[in-house]
Design goal:
about 140 residues, alpha+beta, Beta-lactamase Inhibitory Protein, Chain:B, domain 1, four-stranded antiparallel beta sheet, 4 helices, elongated, DUF3192 domain-containing protein
């Protein structure tokens, strides 16, 4: 009786190749399973994908409802982080200017000051908003 031995022609994965394949599979699975996040803030639902026009409209409506004499902290709480925040002094008086985007001038994906409405605070109180109020400080 004769016994014939054959060697398998199939190649087996080395431990390093197997580990690499597992890492690749895990990476692809993670990126495919990610989704959209929605932030809930009190009564407001704000998607992380809020369009520029929605943001501008919301900012215009919120600014229209502001009251003179408001504190910066209450405005920041209501409107969130400004696009620009500046401090300046004129004749010994401290002013703070918060800029919020309210219009689109350039369709470039960037926010510039000419696309924002300035909110002007004097001594910690809101004294007005808009370009005319800002021009008053720069004269």
């Amino acid at each position: 009786m004769s016994i014939t031995t054959r060697q398998s022609t199939k190649k087996r994965l080395t431990p390093v190749a197997l580990c690499g394949a597992l890492i690749l599979t895990a990476t692809l699975s993670t990126s495919l399973l990610s989704g959209c996040v929605v932030v809930v803030d009190g009564d407001k639902k704000v998607s992380t994908e809020m369009s520029s026009s929605e943001r501008e409209k919301t900012n215009r409506a919120t600014i229209a409802g502001l009251s003179l004499g408001s504190q910066p902290a209450s405005v920041l709480s209501l409107m969130g982080t400004p696009d620009f925040d500046e401090s300046l002094s004129k004749e010994g008086v401290h002013y703070r200017v918060l800029y919020y985007r309210t219009q689109r001038v350039h369709k470039d994906g960037l926010t510039t000051k000419d696309e924002c409405t300035p909110l002007v605070f004097k001594g910690g109180e809101l004294i007005g908003w808009g370009q005319e109020k800002l021009n008053f400080l720069q004269d």
